[in-house]
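Hi W.,

Here's what went into the run:
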Amino acid sequence: MTLISLWYGQNHGLLPTAASSDAGDVDQLFNFMMTIATGLFLLVEGVLVYSVIKFRRVKGDFTDGPPIEGNVPLEIVWTAIPTVIVFILSIYSFEIYNRMGGLDPMTAGDPGPQMAHAHHHSQLVALDPNRQNIALGLGASPDSKQGINPLEIKVNGIQYAWVFTYPETGVISGEIHVPVNRPVALNMTAGDVIHAFWLPEFRIKQDVIPGRVTNLVFTPNQIGQYPVVCAELCGAYHGGMKTQLYVQSEEDYQKWIQENTFAMNDEDNQSVAMNPIPSSDAEFLAPYAKDMGVSSDTLAQLKPTENK
Amino acid sequence: MSTTLERNAPIAPPEYEQHPKRKWQDYFGFSTDHKVIGIQYLVTAFFFYFIGGALAEVMRTELSTPDPDFVQPEFYNQLLTMHGTIMLFLWIIPAGAAFANYLIPLMIGAEDMAFPRLNAVAFWMIPPGGILLMSSFFNGAPQAGWTSYPPLSLISGKSGEEIWILSILILGTSSMFGAINFVTTILLMRMPDMDIHSMPLFCWSMLATSGLILLGTPVLGAALILLSFDLLAGTAFFNPAGGGDPIVYQHMFWFYSHPAVYIMILPFFGAISEILPVHARKPVFGYRAIAYSSLAISFLGLIVWAHHMFSSGTPGWLRMFFMATTMIIAVPTGIKVFSWCATIWGGKLSLNSAFIFAVGFLSSFLIGGLSGVMLAAVPFDIHVHDTYFIVAHFHYVLFGGSVFGLFAAVYHWFPKMTGRMVNETLGRIHFAMTFIGFNITFLPMHQLGLQGMNRRIALYDPQFQTLNMVCTIGSYILALSTFPFIINIIWSLYKGEKAGRNPWRALTLEWQTASPPIIENFEEEPVLWAGPYDYGIDTETIDGNEDVEDMLAAVSAEG
Ligand code: HEM
Ligand SMILES: [Cu+2]
Ligand SMILES: [Cu+2]
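Here's what came out:
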């Protein structure tokens, strides 16, 4: 039984690729829990199946079973075992959570709720300069390479699209491109209702909340294309609120930035309309685009002022 | 000893024939008899269960393909919201109240509830509340999910949302009236000989449930009233557009709604603790451990609510606090599961419908409990929150736990309520179909969630189609499984074998009066001549039953 649990805990094949080292940590935790859960599952189901077969009442036997009302040592044991298990699990989870940067108070401050208004976005996204509050979301891992300064990206969630702004270069896009092995810091907010930014392959998720800034910091370590999914009910087309995250080599990433900066300078304010939502998403949503009411107008309206 | 009960019945003259009987009209009127009210609750709850189930089948049909082609996404969200709301507030909670109403006075040897009128009022708030909620379908049903988070709930249809708020307020008030009755009755109206540690475990679990209802529901009420102001009067308690904080709503909502999940499961924990010993012919294993763990669960249940908000606006240290408290709840829950397993171990099990549903409860609830502990681990919950993993988890708890427990309770107490036995063959078919359908529907959802399928969506990524198809097929089996049940109930009601007082040879007091019980419950003061679970203790009487008869004679001479 132990062997089955150990084997299944490692080989359940239930999780998608892990595209960052934090994701690997989370998977370790899950595998560990899966091992314990499989063990307990087999134990209890085994007892049930065995009892139902073995202790069936013989026809015509109307006597009672043995009058056992309890067994204190046994009860102590099965109180103690789960206590120990959840204690270990808590410590282990805490450790992993800390490694993911969940307790990093310096990443960003939560300025608390602010007025959410479509025309005050620049103010809204601004971080609390004093940083006296604790971050909402995940910060930088304490053991991440301190030398590399993270790539900052602003994320805005609106019904039913994601808008990414690269403050360094002024690029605005409906899909997100990041270079491999460099920490990425997302400063996120929402324009209308609550959404949630989820990267299944990175095992991270954070609600984006109108009137508040939340953060996610992660370091992709595998080149590839990954889905970005909205994971908080945000209206009828919530299921269609998706885009792609491209983890690219440094060169490819620079090329992409360049192309897009070009486009921005060329067409100035038209730039947003040029790349409203990624093509894959656009195809996916094409039949519903009209009902959804995401238009280039909406996007243009969200264009932050500092990019003029 | 237990055989004596049956032999005892014919000795006592069938007095109940002289007692006035309930007419069928009584069940449609304002009756203050807790037994009538209990059955009113139960039938009403089943009525809404079938509606909620039908909505679920429409959703599953929609989800058999990735495109929203069967229903429009907007309508899907309405179905979703109504399904969740109906299943929780009009099915599971009233069904728990149904058994509490029916059983508590009988189990503690009382004539009725402490406040019979309040009790009737509590029931009669449910049909209007339910009809009000259903009426929203004509005018744009609510579509912000059963959680109704602002700001979404403030901008997706005023009338539907307001109707939702009003009906939840009505149903919540009803549930509080019920709870006041349960606590008072259990604490003050037990027969003189019954101290609190010889009361059936179902009463303990209702004590824990009622405490949660009384503490939690007012907070939900407050949240909904404020939400209503935001919706109608344009205030900004929760609306960020006016400087409000939507996260405060989430805290208030879950302060009630996490305890609410225990409100939905504890009554059935209680029922299981009654059913297993009777059909295993063994005392319940660890009476005090089970009783106190109910209280522990309800206390801890009050301080874990933010585990529903790990990925929302909850700072890191708070996440860690709620992770710890949530993990600890696994301990009292584990105690219960182990105690139940030990109860059936070495017994003499009758594998009748009630018992197999109870075992089905144990085996499915186990899965929900194990995935629940996983969800307490913050780093993992961050990945699967708001995905199909969660949908799988809470259906394992609510369906695999509460609903299986509920069916076990229906089969177990049907003879008491109607005086007739159920058809065991149909009952077993019902169990097999439910159990198989349930696992096919909900087991694959764990994988869907882990792989990246978010919940509350009408359109999804085509890579998930195969598993969704499996889930949909499972849900059709589940739908079909209700037919043997309905046929069984109707057939047994008219043609079932007569039950007698105590067909299961059980020891709790409700089995010591007629089936169905006479209007005043007991012909004379009931006698507490055995603990609720003293199976197998008085072994001599199995052959010669003088002991108990002497005892009874002595007691009635006294009385
Ligand atoms: C007939 C079997 C059932 C089926 C096929 C079924 C199916 C579903 C489906 C497809 C969803 C939507 C999931 C999503 O998109 O997030 C859902 C949600 C839900 N179900 Fe069920 N369900 C069933 C029974 C139950 C029962 C018995 C309960 C409670 C006692 C229940 C409680 C809920 C709740 C609370 C939700 C969440 C609604 C929300 O997200 O607002 N379901 N169910
Ligand atoms: Cu969404
Ligand atoms: Cu909870």
